[in-house]
Each structure stands twice: as structure tokens, then as C-alpha cells.
Amino acid sequence: MPADGQWSQDVTLLLIVAAYLLGSIPFAIVTSRLFGLEDPRKYGSGNPGATNVLRSGNKAAAVLTLLGDAIKGWLAVWAALRLGFEPDIAALAGLAAFLGHVFSLFLRFNGGKGVATALGVLAGVDARIAIFCAVIWLMIAYTTRYSSAAALSAALAAPLAGLLFLGAKPAVGLLAVMTAVLFWRHKENIARLRAGTEGRIGGKKKDRPTA
């Protein structure tokens, strides 16, 4: 039997890998197939996420995609806590699930923007942070109808809310990493927002432009 420290490291590594694989499940594509919809990577933004699935006109599919992506982020944190891991390690598992969504093993390390999964991670870490960021998202989305602008605003608020509710803990640093990745994944959206060409929530489905 390995020494206690080594065993702990091995189990932690197993947890992180399992969380990454959980996050890699592409619910946008799974849900689209269940509803007989076109692959979301072939229209709109080409992003396998709830906002793009909504462009198909099927709200139920979009809602299920949103729930699936959020639950896998929450589940990674919740399961880690239930198994007795420290909160900071549980937050690391959440980050792994988030990265699995963004760099999905099942999509050749491509994936979605990670907004819903990030929200699920926040809910697992501390529900107050998730509620705070969700309110920010709703306010910006309602006033601008830009999902990307709402996501970026909520992402920026996440580590600040973490400091407010948790204090200066390692988990807050992990939230900051999620924020950085979210901004990087939205770099094209940022460019379109600046150019005034970004699509709005509820916009009609369009074929994905050929590169």
C-alpha cells in the first residue's frame, strides 16, 4: 500500500481526471441529437453551447443544454466535497470540469465557451457567488441582449465575489483562472462587440461562415 501522502496524491489526480472527463461531455451535441437538430457547430457561432442551440429555435433543447453544462460543473465540486476533499481541492476539480468543457476530449480538445459550466462550478464552491454572478448576467443580458457581454461581466465579477464571500483563499485564484480562460474564449466575441456585429440573444439561426 502506498504511503498516505502518495495515496492522497494519486486519489487527487484521479479526481481531477474524472472531473475533466465529466466536463468533456458535450451536452449541446448530445441534446441536439436527442431532438433531431443539426450539429450546433455547423451554424450560428459554431459554439457547442446553450446560446447557440437556442438559435435552432428549440428552446427545450437549449434549456437542457444549459442545465447539463451547469450540472457537470456543480457535480464535480459536490462530489469532491462528498468524498472528503478540502474545499480548495474541490474547487480544483471544478476547474478541471470547466477546462474539460472548453477543451473537450470528445471534441478533439475543442469545446464550448464554458459559461454555464463555470456557473455550475461557482454554485458548487459557494452558492452566493453563483447567485451574485447570475444576477450580473441577467442584468446585462436583459439590457443589451448580448450573451457574450453578459458572460464577460459575470466572469469579471466571479473572483471579486469570491474575495467578498470567501476571503483570500486559493479557490479564489482558481476562479480568476476561469475568468481568464472565459475572456480568452470570448476574444472573437469581444472583437465583434467592438465592431457592432455581435449576434444578440434570440437571433435567427445562420449557417456558420466558412473560414
Plain-language structure description:
The chain is mainly alpha-helical and 211 residues long. It is built from ten helices and no strands. Helix 4 runs antiparallel to helix 5 and helix 5 runs antiparallel to helix 6. The N terminus is likely disordered.
Brief rundown of the structure:
With about 210 residues, the protein is an all-alpha fold. The chain contains 10 helices and no strands.
Features of this protein?
211 residues; mainly alpha; globular; disordered N terminus
Which geometry do the CA atoms define?
globular
Strand content: under 5%
Radius of gyration over C-alpha positions, nearest whole angstrom:
17 Å
Which residue ranges are poorly predicted, with pLDDT under 50 across at least 5 consecutive positions? 1-7
Count of helical stretches = 10
Sketch the topology as an H/E string, one letter per element. HHHHHHHHHH
Helix content: over 70%
Largest sheet data: none
Mean pLDDT: 89
Helix-and-strand structural type: mainly alpha
Number of DSSP strands? Answer: 0
End-to-end span in angstroms?
54 Å
